[in-house]
């Protein structure tokens, strides 16, 4: 398993250390990292050897083929200088990208002839050339086109580099890869990406993701490449604005986890399977805001032990902590021990409390005690957590992979203080959401940043709201403008009741969603009570900006 | 002058206050802001009146026209509910966007007929409908198409809303707007944008900018609209991820400045013209790092007065300050008093030191004393400043507008700790650059964040580097990998000398650029010495990542 240094932030040495610590076997050395490094290629070679890393590829070499003779001469001189570096570095394969140069002409025979020449020069030094079709190459922009040229050149030191992004972003059919002989696939680069409708070059340079974080079918792609008989490294090459500025140690671990999940899907690694989940056994909140416990009581919870609270089918642990936050999510596993082993295999480090997730929450595995009791609340619908904007893709992948959840469609909405991304995953019983600012927030945003919440299920949201409000629960008031708009948009039959009880409403093609919230406690955590009618699939995200504005008002009022 | 509330961050009340303080006369009320507000429409009307704001538009109303009868009935009901809100609000114009609904059909006659019906309903209440072609409208996506429908509908309460983004993003010809009668242009919305090759909906929703910050010809566009005889508001409607989370008071001032600059170009406002500049009279640095003054001496500077230093044609003021930074840029104006008046007209607040720019630097205006003297340095080539990533577009516009500079092509490069945007503006004598992280940085990046620098000009960079190094100036060492790559890329004839003196090199079609840097002083400021050969236009940005990595090394070494 290998990774390109361009995936990570820092200097070359920062990157090599991070890559080795995360357990990779090899690296692709990205030229810019080497150029900016004070280490000579020879020292880099020694450094990699010390760290147990092989140098699997030197990249990229650009704009070589299908050019007039004078340009060819200059390009060969340039290549020889790079072969000098590679020789010192001990790298035997160079990536040559299909040309984007205005000097190039559209002539496959000429491209093949000149690549043959380059492969000759490489072979003289015991090196080889991996030719890659960039999705935005001037004339060669698909893998099958690059393969036709490589086949025509027919040189043992010339083969292909296949990159999932370049193939899948263009809608290429990976099944066609299977016709390529294994000894002609010199290298395999992997990147996922969200489906974006934008210039493919910008998409590639800014928005790639690690496998499993985007929308591409990496399993199918790698499956096709492996079907050729390819036995070289699976190597990650991810250009991503956020990863470029994040802690490389953390990014490297996340990258390795994503590769493990991919290998599991391909049957290349045997991880403990994710056991089926039976829902939540509870969640834990740390706080020292007394109002939180008061509202628990008003919501109908009662204490069942030290720090343990229950209301119908919903249980919660409250412990005293300096800052209010959701400290643990306890899920009911059909095999808690295997759940823990799976987490460990996915690079988590379980302790006596459970598995620490990248967002700081502990994931604990228990078994479901049959605790169904009387009460308005029947359990936990979802837990909404937070992660820094630059860690959320990795964090979400962690939860999905460890718990065996499926990603749900991502939502994005304009909140009062900026755009918010909402990622969620579910197996139908356990739902975990992460709501994060799209960009790191500016300083100005007042009031609540990054609130977390626990959403309890109820069979009757209107009744629950009435009863809880009557008990003095600090529930959020929603203004009339919302209901006037709701009337114009969806005209729910029970509009007056929704309005009277400050219950929010949404509808999709499967059903309805009624939900209401408490105030925010300890500047961080609130409770939501939700009722799903029919098969409604979402989380009422359309109402989130209204809820957020209402939370700000209630905080201003409470702080007076 | 008007602005849509969607341009700004915060709750509706935050926005209204910011808009009024910045001197706008009116607002477009964005529906989501109203829906999330606890203020009733009537209270919002009163609030606007108190703040001296007219409500110029209520927006948006979506997916109305060219639908089957049952959908039409529902849409009319929906419209009546919104007219109720508008009546309370005292808004008389509603924006109706061309439909993106799957319910709509491609039938201009039907669209015209149904819009006529809507206009009738509006007219009954003394209101009017401004129909706008979204650039991604399902059937109607150009202004001329929307105009054909409005003309066909022939209702006095039905007219057009023209939005510069929707017209210019599609490459529409604004000159064709001049055929539309003035009484049919109900509203004019203005937004600029960078030229991006991406889905136009995403481009519009995330990347709009205020006029003058992007690549669109707003002057030509507004000129065409005014040529119809349009006398309504010029209203800004800018959806931008960053502005959505920035301090609305600041954004509103920046928005107003951008509108003033646009109006100046159109001859609609008479601002003091920017006087020609003669270059720099100096710059001022605050520091308490003694190494900075030592290096000044080694660079050949000598004191000419309290805190004043000179070397040949370059002058500098060093004052003692707690944090090291460039505190002032002093430019030589042919009319300093007019320069100051211009700054004031552009919403700056000059004090006795000069004009405070949004990035915290003071811009001072002096007159050029003829100080040419002996020395290796001949003056200041450019000053490179910093601004938070979410303020840099506004900051750059401020410098351009106040100083009368022209924007140069924007550069973007991968630095060791993340992507960096480099914006610069110049009049050929004064060059101001801003280098900022593309995203707010993560916490991990060690060493230098946001360094500033002053670049002095020299006629011979190699000689200057030798002399300064001999005098003990703390100059940056550049590693061999850079020169080996330079040899492969550009093969400069004086490679050995460049290498021996750690001088960086670049070349464009106009000439060459030789440059070298000192260490960073006080964690913030360094000096660069640059030689332009021929008409080289850039700033050697290609070498920035190498310089940054070298700066990190030198800081680690110095901190040992």
Topology:
2 copies of one chain form a homodimer.
Chain A lengths: L1 E3 L7 H10 L4 E5 H6 L4 H11 L2 E8 L7 H21 L3 E5 L10 H17 L3 E5 L10 H11 L4 E6 H5 L16 E6 L9 H8 L10 H10 L6 E3 L11 H18 L11 E11 L2 H9 L3 E4 L2 E4 L2 E7 L4 E9 L2 H10 L9 E2 L5 E5 L10 E9 L6 H12 L2 E2 L3 E5 L2 E9 L4 E7 L14 E7 L2 H10 L9 H10 L5 H6 L3 E4 L3 E7 L7 E10 L9 H16 L1
Function (chains A, B): Catalyzes the conversion of 3-dehydroshikimate to protocatechuate (3,4-dihydroxybenzoate), a common intermediate of quinate and shikimate degradation pathways.
Organism (chains A, B): Actinophytocola oryzae
GO molecular function (chains A, B): 3-dehydroshikimate dehydratase activity; dioxygenase activity; metal ion binding
Radius of gyration of chain A: 28 Å
CATH architectural category of the largest domain in chain A: Roll
Work out the number of β strands of chain A. 24
Q: What is the arithmetic mean of pLDDT of chain A?
A: 94
Strand content of chain A: 25-35%
Portion of residues within helices of chain A: 25-40%
- Which structural class matches the secondary elements of chain A? alpha/beta
Q: What is the CATH superfamily classification of the largest domain in chain A?
A: 2,3-Dihydroxybiphenyl 1,2-Dioxygenase, domain 1
The most extensive contact between chains is: A-B, 66 and 65 residues
Characterize the quaternary organization of these chains: homodimer
CATH fold type of the largest domain in chain A: 2,3-Dihydroxybiphenyl 1,2-Dioxygenase, domain 1
Low-confidence sequence ranges of chain A? none
Overall 3D form of chain A: elongated
* Total count of helical runs of at least 4 residues of chain A: 17
Which class of the largest domain in chain A in CATH terms? Answer: Alpha Beta
Total of domains of chain A: 2
Distance between the termini of chain A: 57 Å
- Sheet with the most strands, sense and barrel status of chain A: 9 strands, mixed
